[in-house]
Amino acid sequence: MENRKFVLVVHGGAGNIRNEVITADKQREAREGLEEALHAGHALLVAGGSSLDAVEATVKVLENNPMFNAGKGAAFNKAGGIELDAAIMDGKTLSAGAVACVTTIKNPISAARAVMERSPHVMLIGLGADQFADEVGLEIVKPSYFWTPERWEQLKKELKQESHSRTGRRQQSGSEPAPEKHGTVGCVAVDVRGNVAAGTSTGGISSQHVGRVGDAPIIGAGTYASNDGCAVSATGHGEFFMRHVVAHEISCLVKYKGLSVGQAAAHVVQKTLKEAGGSGGVIAVDARGEFAMEFNSQGMYRGYILPDGQPHAYIFREE
Amino acid sequence: MENRKFVLVVHGGAGNIRNEVITADKQREAREGLEEALHAGHALLVAGGSSLDAVEATVKVLENNPMFNAGKGAAFNKAGGIELDAAIMDGKTLSAGAVACVTTIKNPISAARAVMERSPHVMLIGLGADQFADEVGLEIVKPSYFWTPERWEQLKKELKQESHSRTGRRQQSGSEPAPEKHGTVGCVAVDVRGNVAAGTSTGGISSQHVGRVGDAPIIGAGTYASNDGCAVSATGHGEFFMRHVVAHEISCLVKYKGLSVGQAAAHVVQKTLKEAGGSGGVIAVDARGEFAMEFNSQGMYRGYILPDGQPHAYIFREE
């Protein structure tokens, strides 16, 4: 049943991303980073590889790029530490794997895949997950590997602002985050056999509470894939995506309400999340290759690639 | 819109629970424990309290009872430690809170609620969560509080068996667990205003990998509540419940396919999970008070209470 069609879609975070606030250099760097990731996934898919392999390879490229808030380049938490989350899911078998709050794994997306394939579990967190990754032979790095001067300056600035404007209890609702504050990378793909897969990886929110876990590693919230519905990877204000179980919700709208992927993604992002005050976006693809890149924030680093091998990368709304 | 009707449903774990393998003393202890929990929830609901308050109070009673694998009585992980998970969700607002891998919080369900109401986050894990609970004034205990001789003996037995029958890689699929191995407690309720809520708490699987997180604290998997769909709390082989996003799936079948709570719970538990090899069960209730207690294992500790205040507690299939 090979249909020779395949699609791979990526995102590199959503937020208050406008032409006026991103330097030309950063824009170029982001587009190049997205294109490099798209090429990595395309190389596997064009050779008949699985969407699962393509998603992992693509997310790894984004994790290794300090431009994006995942792997190298991850945001620091309030205590000046790094806590990485990732998840991956196979839409053919509904197998899934996730890690959260890991600190020594170079590529959390590969750790998520190892949890899926080489443990009886779906989710491992903290030291137990770092230990597992070491045991199965994944590349382990010192926490200092993840340190980047940009993120460190960002944390210092935020902690300063926070001590200036302490307002007591913060809300689960909130305004659109600064472009550099949030950030997540993700990929969804469908291969020539019509199998979909999704993967997401993040360093979380800059200056977040120690131990905070967002939607990225939560199967159903930030990451989900089912051949019967669609594959989804999300980015944005994670708490809203968790409460609305966004990735699974989109897949259910496709499966049970007969909406197209584009309609389902638009409904959840532009209506459900927007009304709740949740800023961000999703990428999604179904088994027939229909895909969506939907966001309600000013911009979203995103792109897609088809069999022709031509990468398409976008940042702002009007592109 | 007070309808004077309310319902509160509890579970205390599912598994290979048959008359022949549970002593008469244990059966009595379990029924009494379930009834005590039902009374605690009823007392609040009959006075016009919210389903959220009732769910928290009910789960606390089960957490404090060493009979059940949550709070005191939690199972030990492979390293001989305790790691507790819990989540709570308000079906009216879709607010949610969760903690995972906490080790010093007497009542993890209350920590989950504090995350929901007193932090900007939905999920906190590990030391960061323990610290947060301490900061907001929840009762902190030494890890030794959770130690029970039964669970310790169980761990020793399992580690011995494991070293005898090492089979290499274990699968995400598996056979029905021993009655004492898994275990989770949970509660769903609808109050007189027609608002639903769900809460779940667990000590995980005995001898589990350090850092393993199951479905209980995952919003959408083991715990979910929406007035538009239903409130669900699950128990069983958590990995299957995560991959099938069980709690949210049941709510979506109600919301989008027009199934009743009973039909939706039966479909997911007896068809989806059973075909996948996932053993366990769910309790669910909708805003009109229709409820379900559905399981595909030999038994499930469970019960419900209505405005008349008469508790109904069950263990086996034929009751």
Could you please describe the fold and organization of this structure?
2 copies of one chain form a homodimer. In chain A, α1 (24-46) runs antiparallel to α2, α2 (51-64) runs antiparallel to α3 (108-118) and α7 crosses α8 (261-276). By secondary structure, chain A is an alpha+beta fold. The radius of gyration of chain A is 18 Å and the shape is globular. In chain A, strands 4-3-2-6-5-1-12-13 form an 8-stranded mixed sheet. Chain A contains 8 helices and 13 strands. Chain A has one domain: 4-Layer Sandwich (Glutamine Phosphoribosylpyrophosphate, subunit 1, domain 1), CATH 3.60.20. The interface between A and B is large, with 51 and 51 residues. β4 (123-125) of chain A pairs antiparallel with β7 (212-213) of chain B, so a sheet runs across the interface.
The level of helicity of chain A is 25-40%
- CA-atom Rg of chain A in angstroms: 18 Å
Number of domains of chain A: 1
Helix and strand pattern of chain A: EHHEEHEHHEEEEEHHHEEEE
Helix segment count of chain A?
8
Estimate what percentage of residues of chain A fall within beta strands. 15-25%
Under CATH, the topology of chain A can be stated as: Glutamine Phosphoribosylpyrophosphate, subunit 1, domain 1
Shape descriptor of chain A reads: globular
Q: Classify the oligomer.
A: homodimer
The total of beta strands of chain A comes to 13
